[in-house]
Amino acid sequence: MKYPLAPGGDMSRLEVEKKLLEIIGPHERIIRLKGLSDDGIYLERAINGTLADYLLESDNLPPSTLQRVSWWKQLSKDGTVLLDGLSGEPSRLYCPRADPFDADIKTDLFALGCTIYMILMGHPVFPDIIDGEDGWYEEVRERFGKQHFPRDLHACSHITLKCWMKEYQSAEELVQDLELIEKGIRAGANERNTE
C-alpha cells in the first residue's frame, strides 16, 4: 500500500497517481494498480523492477524510440493536459531555484526534460556522478545551476534542452514539439517498410 505521509493526510497526489496508472494501462515494467481505499492505493509487488532498471539492464532488448516517446504523453483527445501530478522532484531532476518549495510549470517541465533524457538515453543525467558518493548531490545541483546540461543527441534533444533552459511556457508547447517528433518517427518507419 502507498499512503500519505501522515495517516488521514492529503490523498490528492495518490488519486492522481491512480488515474495515471489507469491511463497507462498494464505493462510488465509498470506496477499494476490494485485499488484505492480511504487509506491509500494498493499496488502490486514490483517483481520486475523499475522502468529505470529495465532501461539500464544491458541484456534487455531496448524499447523503440516511438515507445519511449509515448511513455510521457498523458493527454486528452483534444490535447489538453488532464492530470497534474504536482511537484516533488528528486535531485537528479531538480531545477535550480532560490526557494526549493517554489515550484511552477517551468520547474516541472525541467524535471520532465530529465525524465525524457533518461528514457531515451537509458541512463540518468550526469551518469558519471554516482548516487551516494561524497558530494554527488551538490555536484548535480552545481552542474544544473551552471547550465552544464548533457549534450547527448537523441530523438528529443531539442525538447530536453528547451526544458532545461525553461523555454517552454506550457506543457501544451512541449506536446506540440513531441507530436512533430512522433510524426517524423512514424513517417521514417513507414518509409523503411515500403522500401
Automatic annotation (TrEMBL):
Gene3D superfamilies in UniProt: Transferase(Phosphotransferase) domain 1 (1.10.510.10)
Name of the protein: Protein kinase domain-containing protein
Organism name: Aspergillus lucknowensis
Higher taxonomy: Eukaryota, Fungi, Dikarya, Ascomycota, Pezizomycotina
